Amino acid sequence: MSSTVRIDFSRPIALFPLPAVSLYPHTAEWIVAFEPRYRQMVEDCLRARGEGSILGAAPIAMATYAGRQWNGPRIGEPPLRPVVCVAKMVEHTRLDDGRHQILLHGVSRARIETIAEPDGRRLYRLAKLTPIDARLGAPRRLPGFNHMLAALLAQSQLRRVQRLETVREWLARGVIPTEVIIEQLLPLLARGDDMRYQMLAEPSGRERARFVLSELAHLGQQLSRAVERTPESPLRGVHIN
Q1: Of 6, 34, 141, 232, which sits most exposed with the smallest number of CB within 10 A?
Q2: CATH number at residue 109
Q3: How far, CA to CA in Å, does 74 sit from each of 15, 93, 112, 148?
């Protein structure tokens, strides 16, 4: 979807901050808006579509709070980390208690330039954003990377990781763009929220690809060591937590 949906960065975009990174471009996540300000935000975004499809709703920027342990740049009060994932709603359900359940699809990385704090009727924050992706356009297929990724996933220890089976299927079918596969792997491989944010803030697709290969190689090494230490109990169906 990200290849066909465009974000109008000339207009302020609603901010939906959470404690941790929840979304990357080309990935999807269910979110429940239960606070009054975020219920209002969802309703205002939906109102922007008029009579059109849900894809015509205004975008939402998924931000993260800059907690006490965060040493990087921050903006606003309460402070946010400056890089966000701009998303579009693709499904919406209004629950009986007034909450909104929405399925968000990540479209673009962007940096917060300025924040408009709540004002008058508006209970939520808006931000002026600038896209930071080094390359725009449809996600590409990268045969060289696919070959290296397939070779890593063929290793005996990584074949035990059930959550990588879908990626092996995608590579075998050859229909999913490589850059989409990379984004799907980032939340699985990034260790800790700071690293997850660093991969959200990384504008270079090449660097994100290198990170994926490096972390998969590291995971394979860790699993091999674990098997060597417990030969009587081989790992079965390992999950990435």
Answers
A1: 232
A2: 2.30.130.40
A3: 14, 33, 10, 36
Tokens of 32: 């429940």
Helix (H, G, I), strand (E, B) or coil at 35: coil
Residue 33 sits in the same domain as residue 114: yes
Q: Each residue's pLDDT tens digit in the chain (241 positions)?
A: 545 678 999 999 999 999 999 999 999 999 999 999 999 999 999 999 888 889 899 999 999 999 878 888 999 989 999 999 999 999 999 998 989 999 999 999 999 999 999 999 999 999 999 999 877 778 888 889 999 999 999 988 888 888 899 999 999 998 899 999 999 999 999 988 999 999 999 999 999 999 999 999 999 888 888 777 765 555 555 555 5
| Residue appearing with tokens 């269910």 | 30
d(Cα 55, Cα 151) in Å, to the nearest integer?
A: 38
Residue 240 lies in a domain: no
pTM above 0.70, yes or no: yes
- Number of domains the chain contains: 2
Lookup result for tokens 């050859």: 174
- Name the residue range of residue 183's domain: 143-229
